UniProtKB/TrEMBL annotation:
<dbReference type="InterPro" id="IPR007214">
    <property type="entry name" value="YbaK/aa-tRNA-synth-assoc-dom"/>
</dbReference>
<feature type="domain" description="YbaK/aminoacyl-tRNA synthetase-associated">
    <location>
        <begin position="25"/>
        <end position="139"/>
    </location>
</feature>
<dbReference type="Pfam" id="PF04073">
    <property type="entry name" value="tRNA_edit"/>
</dbReference>
<dbReference type="GO" id="GO:0002161">
    <property type="term" value="F:aminoacyl-tRNA deacylase activity"/>
</dbReference>
<protein>
    <submittedName>
        <fullName>Cys-tRNA(Pro) deacylase, prolyl-tRNA editing enzyme YbaK/EbsC</fullName>
    </submittedName>
</protein>
<dbReference type="InterPro" id="IPR036754">
    <property type="entry name" value="YbaK/aa-tRNA-synt-asso_dom_sf"/>
</dbReference>
Length: 162
């Protein structure tokens, strides 16, 4: 069970961090922001990507969009999103609950510098009803993430949602 792997991760690595369980779904950035009473940018969304045969996770602020040019420069090729089945198989987490904690398969994790705008972010915790509150630097340290710059600049985010 995905939530259980996240619980085990925090029990071992950061027992002071409490998993927040919600009755409503927090599967989307909008739902999570409303449920946790924060702006969408504070939701740390975890994207499951592949470049060639290499799969990895990128954690970004909730209102950020990937910049394909920056992604290609950072990871050496065009990235594609994994499908829901691949995501669940590799991470052990369902789409909407994916996080860099308690992964089923060891995967490289990257955190986008956009997260550094916040002192605290709210990533999912292995299910569509759970999350944690954590500083972005601490999150990156706990999961051994490298910092990258792969999102569009704030002023470039003029595309409509959906």
């Amino acid at each position: 069970m995905s939530l259980e792997s996240v619980r085990a991760f925090f029990s071992k690595n950061a027992p002071d961090i409490e998993i927040i369980e919600m009755k409503t779904s927090t599967a989307t950035v909008t739902q999570a922001a409303e449920a946790h009473g924060v702006e969408p940018g504070r939701i740390a969304k975890t994207l499951s990507l592949r470049v060639g045969e290499r799969s990895f996770l990128v954690v970004t602020r909730g209102d950020a969009r990937l910049d394909n040019r920056k992604v290609k420069a950072a990871f050496g090729g065009k990235a594609s999103m994994l499908d829901a089945e691949q995501v669940h198989s590799l991470t052990g987490h369902p789409v909407g609950g994916v996080c860099p904690f308690g992964l089923a398969t060891p995967l490289p994790v990257y955190c986008d510098i956009s997260l550094k705008a916040f002192d605290e972010v709210v990533p999912a915790a292995g299910s569509i009803h759970t999350a944690v509150r954590i500083g972005p630097e601490r999150m990156a340290a706990l999961v051994g993430a490298d910092w990258v710059d792969v999102c569009q600049e704030a002023s470039a985010k003029s595309e409509p949602a959906g």
